[in-house]
Amino acid sequence: MLMRRVARIGAYRPQGVTGSPPFPLPDEDEFTLAATAVERAWSGERGEPGPVEVHLLGEFPAVADWGFAALLGRAANVTRHSGEAAELTNTLRAVEEGEGGPALLVAVELPGTKPKKSARTPARAGGAVAFRLDTTEEPHPFTLPKMAVDRTAVATALKVGEGARELPGSVVLVGDWEQGTEAGLAVRENPPRERVEVDTRAVSEGAYVPHPRYLENLPSRWRFLAEACQACQGTTFPARGVCRRCGRRDALTTVSLPYDGGRVVAVTTVGKGGQPTEFDAQVESQGPYDVALVELARGMRVTLQVTNARAGTLHVGDRVNTMLRRLYPMEGEWRYGRKAVPASTGTASKLPS
Amino acid sequence: MTHRAAIVGAGHTRFGVLDEGPRSLLRSAVEAAFASVDRSADPRDVREAFLATLGFGGHQIGNSAAALAEEAGLVGIPVTRVENACASGGFALRSAIGALASGVSPLVLVVGMEKMTDVSNARRRYWLGVSGDTEWERAAGLTFAGVYGLIASRYFAEHGDASEALVEVAVKNHANGALNPNAHFQKAVSREQVRAAPRVARPLGLYDCCPVSDGAAALLLAPPELAHRYTDAPVYVDATGAGTDYLAVQERRDLTRFRATQRAAHEAFRWAGWHRSDVSFLEVHDCFTIAELLALEDLGFATPGEAAALTLSGATRRTGRIPVNPDGGLKAKGHPIGATGVSQAYEVFLQLRRAAGTRQVPNAEHALTHNVGGAGATAAVALFSVG
Question: pTM above 0.80?
Answer without folding.
Answer: yes
